[in-house]
Amino acid sequence: MALSAFSHTSHTLFTSVTRLCIPSLATFIWPLGSRHLYAPASMGLENFVSLRQKTEIQFTNKKEKFKEKMDKLMHSNDNVMVFTEDLKSAVFLAEATEKDLSLVLEMAKKFNQQYQGLRFGAYVFGPVVMRMYHYLNQPDAALAALKTKELDGFFDQMISYHIAMDLLYKSEKYEDVLDVFELVQEKRIAGVKYPKNCFTIAVATFYKLVIALCELDRIEDALPLLRSLIQIDLPATSRSSGDFYIVEEAVLTAETASQKTGKKELIAEFEHIKKSLLENNSISDKTLDMILSEPIETFKMQESRQQEKAMLAASFYGRGKRPVHHSRRQGLFDYE
Fold this sequence. Notes:
Elements: H1 6-17, H2 22-29, E1 37-38, H3 45-58, H4 63-74, H5 84-93, H6 98-114, H7 126-135, H8 139-146, H9 158-170, H10 174-187, H11 196-215, H12 219-231, H13 236-240, E2 246-247, H14 248-261, H15 264-279, E3 283-284, H16 288-292, E4 295-296, H17 305-309
Parallel strand pairs: 1-4, 2-3
Helix pairs in contact: 1-12, 3-5, 4-6, 5-6, 7-9, 9-10, 9-11, 10-11, 11-12, 11-14, 12-14, 12-15, 14-15
């Protein structure tokens, strides 16, 4: 998505949001006490690292041999099956190299093809692979995987897109964040078009790009985005209680940019928007960095609870209900 198209995309985003349940709208933007980046534990990354360490210990002195064998099998002409345990091992042993990432991608394609259309019984690898990309800090590879046709359905879990968007945001690839959010809307996983966790990252991206447009002296593109905030039809109680905020940093940046133009009509329009935001108690004195530096510690899964039940094999969230057994089943690598 080109930066020039951002204004239209963001306006569409906020216009569409008004069709959601109005009482809950304010909580999407920034309610008191909320945070706008996600802690590693909330995305299952800490447990991913733990399992990665255990796998590396298990494959001591055998890691490279395993990778070579898998690579040879992926490039053979035989109709080779990809075992669940082998793909797990490949994911947990992968390093940030083109060879390792390519191996995981090819194995994932074969695995997805094997279980195409099978809804139950197959291990759900989408979140696990996306955690691998996040851990290895590979945003471009993660985005490419999401758009790979052979992996259609592989990442159809809300948490997979959440992790991908968090990684892209962390890497300051803001346009890609919005591209992925559009994919989320198209997919409507579990019937949800605007999942809260993905939406939170999209809104944070929106603020970043508003400021970027102002710094580029493109106030004409930024003003419609600010105007869309005061046009959202919120109950009077939500506005008066201060549940709906825009950071002061964005307002001040827009004000400076508008004054630079010297255009009286543009300055007057901005002053009108600013006045409306002030009257509605909608400007926060916190900076964006202050908000974004406070990590979200928990992950809410209400939107896709039924789907998550079918994905327990891929979940790293300890419930404390039963002990976890890390059994080692045979994979293709075990057969010599």
